[in-house]
Automatic annotation (TrEMBL):
<keyword id="KW-0411">Iron-sulfur</keyword>
<feature type="domain" description="Molybdopterin dinucleotide-binding">
    <location>
        <begin position="658"/>
        <end position="754"/>
    </location>
</feature>
<dbReference type="InterPro" id="IPR009010">
    <property type="entry name" value="Asp_de-COase-like_dom_sf"/>
</dbReference>
<dbReference type="InterPro" id="IPR006657">
    <property type="entry name" value="MoPterin_dinucl-bd_dom"/>
</dbReference>
<dbReference type="InterPro" id="IPR010046">
    <property type="entry name" value="Mopterin_OxRdtse_a_bac"/>
</dbReference>
<dbReference type="InterPro" id="IPR050123">
    <property type="entry name" value="Prok_molybdopt-oxidoreductase"/>
</dbReference>
<dbReference type="Pfam" id="PF01568">
    <property type="entry name" value="Molydop_binding"/>
</dbReference>
<dbReference type="Pfam" id="PF00384">
    <property type="entry name" value="Molybdopterin"/>
</dbReference>
<feature type="domain" description="Molybdopterin oxidoreductase">
    <location>
        <begin position="124"/>
        <end position="577"/>
    </location>
</feature>
<protein>
    <submittedName>
        <fullName>FdhF/YdeP family oxidoreductase</fullName>
    </submittedName>
</protein>
<keyword id="KW-0479">Metal-binding</keyword>
<keyword id="KW-0408">Iron</keyword>
<dbReference type="InterPro" id="IPR006656">
    <property type="entry name" value="Mopterin_OxRdtase"/>
</dbReference>
């Protein structure tokens, strides 16, 4: 852990810089861009019935949108107020009224005709609901009836047959911690969370490469670093306030590099509404874009290192920071030998980039005195996601871009609740402040909690869903699934399989603030719905951890309350008391303050959390930079340089590589059918013009994309996508993604595959139902 403390926000330059302007035409008139003023007015209108409360949430609470860590309207990076449309879109979840009773108790078939967006707009869940097998409507239940139903089922089954899952919907550290403790008290290690589905390879790779499981640096380090690299991350779309940090970095002379299969318009230029100069004339963000193949990042990085080692042969010290490498790393010679055996033809084919382009990037980094590498799901959600991140760590270690100002490794988090989830122990591999696999961590937590932890390995959520379809006699047949938020129908691969799995569970519990499509599915015995409070309603307030390890206190905010909704952590406590009345004293967790005091004991890095009591309270664990001065928290204090093999990309002849992307949405909550950055709608398929021409496809033409796993109907949208690759929106494209394909080390589902693209009329003209199977087989056996 570092000794240097974060120094707080800095000011933006006062004078404009016309060199960064996109256009002299004010407000980007005539260009494809978000209409921030119009959208803000629309959101204000949506919240017109609760504007004073909405204002208090925005000015007093910690943002429940992205994980930049905006408290009220301010953060620790830049002085001045910050507000983005992502946060504004999420705002309505906190201010809308309860669902009207006639809608809440409508026939299930009527509700099932609605999309998740339409269900969300109905309002908040006001009281517990239950729908038993064969019933066509939800019935109102008392809290005693609902929780006794759940507890009664839990007492009759093996703990291996129950599972918990928590999404990132504004959930606080307190709720994660209590859920993790309750799950273990009830005897199960089957607990997982949304963070692990997105960034578990980041934690796994960083742990093995540099000994930490979080960002090693701060957002302030973006501002003034020589090179800021976004790898598989569209921060401008997913974390809009980050564009202010990019603007500040550009004003300091930072070069911004984007590495992505799609030339994302929002990363090239952006009109930042809270900076007058940028709001008027826009800001050029990216200095260069390297369009890799989907899954081609390892090949690209091996190519970069190959250039470096060639440079070193000609001029030692021209590419590698030998002083840093010698003092702070292991494995240089093994990595050098591994990279040397890579041939350029394979690297260019795998990456999709020429040798010259790889050399350009290598030389840029070799000249840089500092760099920050930022990445997201474009790197993690592959079956080789951990290797992707360790490759990024290799680059940082070879250049000494670690443990000092303007340097670091940053897995940028998408939601405000996710960084703390694993750190609170809410996944099958973690305990508060440690790991299940560590005997010392297990002993420490058992002593603190006062009960023995289950010793068996818990399942990741994908396997949990698969367990729902196991034969009745199987030990891990899933019979009880308790989810806090989440909609697996719209987040996991193979929605048809997910539907079958969810309807095969005996009792399914949805602890949430709104209904979604998965809430409405049948269960073999009962579906129980529990109304939860938002983070702003919870007595005693709550905390969340940002990407840069800032732990923020968000106070309880005065305002209207929804029916019988309860704090999430309080529901878990009540349930545990009903399942194991004799264990109530062991559980504790009677108030938010008591939970924070216990977290400080359970997770040593969080020892300041008990002092967070007032609006604006915050601390950063680990100091400004983890691995400060190059010293890693590994057994020998050194980082590991790891030889990473090229993955098999598995794209047969005649197929396209496909990946999923986000549009105007927050997680799976979609706020617009049109992406304001490229005017693509949810069923547009982004394809390069050359690829479309080769298939005789015109803009807007109906097409079918398919493989052996499923199909998707869409329309052609010409876009600057790497040839041979296409992109579809998530979750609309999830029907193409195979189930059961998990990353080797972290267990993350893969969201990339290979598909065939055909005109819809061609696809449907073949009456033979075996056409798809034959067509796939034909293309897979063709030879160039």
């Amino acid at each position: 852990m570092g000794k240097t403390k974060h120094t707080g926000p800095i000011k933006l330059p006062a004078k404009p810089d016309p060199k960064l302007w996109v256009s002299k035409v004010p407000f980007g008139l005539g260009k494809i861009k978000p209409q921030h003023i119009r959208e803000t007015a629309k959101i204000a209108w949506q919240n017109r019935d609760n504007l004073p409360y909405a204002y208090r949430i925005l000015t007093q609470g910690v943002c429940d949108g992205c994980a930049l860590g905006v408290s009220g309207l301010y953060d620790q990076t830049l002085a001045g107020p910050h507000l983005c449309t992502t946060r504004l879109n999420v705002l309505r979840l906190n201010t809308m009224p309860a669902i009207r009773e006639e809608l809440l108790h409508a026939d299930i078939d009527e509700l099932s005709r609605m999309s998740s967006t339409e269900l969300r707009q109905l309002g908040r869940i006001p009281y517990p609901l239950i729908r038993r097998h064969g019933e066509r409507k939800f019935s109102r239940a008392t809290w005693d009836e609902a929780l006794d139903t759940i507890a009664g089922k839990m007492r009759t089954i093996d703990p291996k047959q129950m599972a918990f899952y928590l999404t990132a919907r504004g959930i606080t550290n307190e709720s994660y911690y209590v859920a993790a403790k309750v799950a273990r008290l009830l005897g199960t290690n089957n607990i997982d969370n949304a963070s692990r589905i997105c960034h578990s390879p980041s934690k796994t790779a960083l742990k093995r490469s540099v000994g930490v499981g979080a960002s090693t640096c701060n957002y302030k380090d973006w501002i003034g670093t020589d090179v800021l690299v976004f790898w598989g991350s569209v921060a401008a779309n997913n974390q809009p306030v980050s564009t202010k940090y990019m603007y500040a970095a550009k004003r300091k002379g930072t070069k911004i590099i984007v590495i992505n299969p799609y030339y994302e318009p929002s990363m090239e230029q952006y009109w930042i509404p809270s900076i007058p100069e940028s709001a008027l004339f826009g800001t050029k963000l990216a200095d260069d874009v390297y369009q890799v193949n989907i899954g081609g990042d390892i090949g690209f990085m091996n190519g970069v290192m190959k250039v470096w080692f060639e440079m070193e042969e000609r001029e030692p010290g021209s590419a590698i920071d030998h002083a840093f490498v010698q003092a702070h790393t292991n494995g240089l010679e093994q990595l050098r030998a591994h990279v040397a055996q890579q041939d350029w033809t394979t690297l260019t084919q795998s990456s999709g980039l020429t040798r010259e382009r790889m050399r350009e990037f290598a030389e840029l980094l070799a000249r840089a005195k500092s760099a920050v590498f930022v990445w997201s799901m474009g790197l993690t959600q592959h079956r080789f996601g951990t290797d992707n991140i360790s490759q990024v760590a290799n680059l940082a270690l070879l250049r000494g871009f670690l443990g000092r100002e303007h340097c670091g490794l940053m897995p940028i988090r998408g939601h405000s609740g996710v960084q703390g989830s694993g750190e609170m122990g809410a996944d099958p591999f973690s305990l508060p402040g440690g790991e299940i696999a560590s005997a010392a961590d297990r002993a420490r937590i058992e002593q603190l909690w006062g009960f023995e932890l289950p010793s068996w390995q818990g399942d990741i959520v994908g396997v949990t869903l698969e367990n729902a379809l196991l034969p009745e006699e199987q030990e891990r047949k899933l019979r009880m699934f308790y989810t806090s938020g989440g909609n697996f129908l719209e987040t996991m691969p193979d929605p048809a399989f997910v539907r079958e799995a969810l309807t095969s569970i005996d009792v399914r519990v949805h602890q949430d603030i709104i209904l979604n499509t998965s809430t409405l599915l049948d269960a073999r015995e009962a579906v129980v719905v529990l109304p939860a409070m938002t983070r702003y309603e919870q007595p005693g307030g709550g905390t969340s951890t940002s990407t840069e390890r800032m732990v923020y206190f968000s106070p309880e905010i005065a305002g209207p309350r929804i029916g019988e909704a309860r704090a999430e952590w309080a529901i878990y406590v009540d349930l545990a008391h009903r399942v194991k009345p004799d264990a109530a004293e062991q559980l504790g967790c009677g108030s938010a303050e008591a939970i924070r005091a216990e977290i400080a004991l359970a997770a040593p890095s969080y020892n300041g959390i008990g002092h967070l009591r007032e609006r604006g309270d915050v601390f950063q664990y680990g100091g400004a930079w983890l691995c400060e001065d190059g010293v890693c928290p590994t057994p020998d204090g050194r980082g590991a340089l790891l030889p990473i093999e090229l993955p098999e990309l598995r794209k047969p002849e005649g197929h396209f590589a496909v990946t999923t992307r986000r549009g105007k949405q927050f997680n799976s909550m979609i706020y617009s059918d049109i992406d304001p950055f490229n005017e693509a709608d949810r069923y547009d398929v982004l394809i390069h013009n050359d690829d479309a021409s080769a298939l005789s496809l015109n803009e807007g033409e109906a097409i079918v994309i398919y493989n052996s796993y499923g199909s998707m109907h869409g329309r052609v949208k010409h876009a600057e996508v790497k040839p041979g690759n296409i992109e579809v929106h998530w979750p609309e494209g999830n029907s193409l993604i195979p189930k059961g394909v998990y990353e080797q080390y972290a267990g993350i589902p893969e969201y990339n595959t290979a598909v065939i693209v055909e005109k819809a009329e061609t696809y449907h003209a073949h009456k033979d139902t075996r056409y798809v199977e034959r067509r796939i087989q034909e293309l897979e056996t063709e030879v160039e």
